[in-house]
Amino acid sequence: MMACRMMKKGLVGAGLGALALALVFGHRAPSYVKTAFHKVRHDAQRAVPVEFEIQRAREAVASLDPAMLDSHENIVRAQVDLEALEKEIVASRANLDRERREMLALSDGLKAGIYRVDNNSYSAEEVRQELARRFDRYKYALETVDQKESILKTRKQAVAAAREQLVKMAAQKQTLLARIEAMEAKVKQVEAARAGDEFNLDDSPLARVRQDVTELEKRVEVMARVASERGMITDKKVPVILDHPARDVVKEIDAEFGARPKDQGNASADKDL
Fold this sequence. Notes:
With 273 residues, the chain is mainly α. Among the domains are: 16-47; 61-196. It has helices at 2-25, 29-47, 50-62, 64-112, 124-198, 204-234, 249-257, 262-272, and strands spanning 116-117, 120-121. Strands 1-2 form a two-stranded antiparallel ribbon. The longest helix is centred in the middle third of the chain and has 75 residues, at 124-198.
């Protein structure tokens, strides 16, 4: 009962949802639903990893092996049956040929008035009845052999077509495996490239720091040059400030170093200057 009620609720909900879609989108509602379904399915398929899809394709190709092996076994079994049927037809043809020779011998005996079959003497009527029985059996056997030959021909064609199809399937399978292996190699190449990109360090911060250091060096160089050239531009000398303007420095020097002859002092002074 609970399952029935849940089923009814589900059907009612689905019906209400369909009615709501019809009211909102009108006759375009089925198209919108179909488009949304395909989009969801496409997005879901794209979300599946490529490696998983490749493995799934490989397993799908591998799943062909049991069916191909069964087909090959059936073909071999049919081939064996055909060979047996062919031998049977050959034997039947040999028996028919022997029967034909015996019937001709009986017919020639009737014409010549010889009524012997297997070293036994019979009347002409008995030989005629035996000949008629053998001839009817011969025609039935000949018809049977003709049918078997027709069956043999048809089955040979079917077996040849099945074998050719099996060969094509095996070739297509190898082609699919080669394509899958090529995709695997390409995926590995892409992964290797991605791995290499992971180790490509971003040197933009280093470049910015290098630029900052270069700019700072320029500022320091400018400061040093301005400081060194500022004195040459102003050409200032350090002023000599006398604490006591009335001070007799000459006497103090003579007292310190002793009085010297006037000419020697002037000559030394001139020489120093």
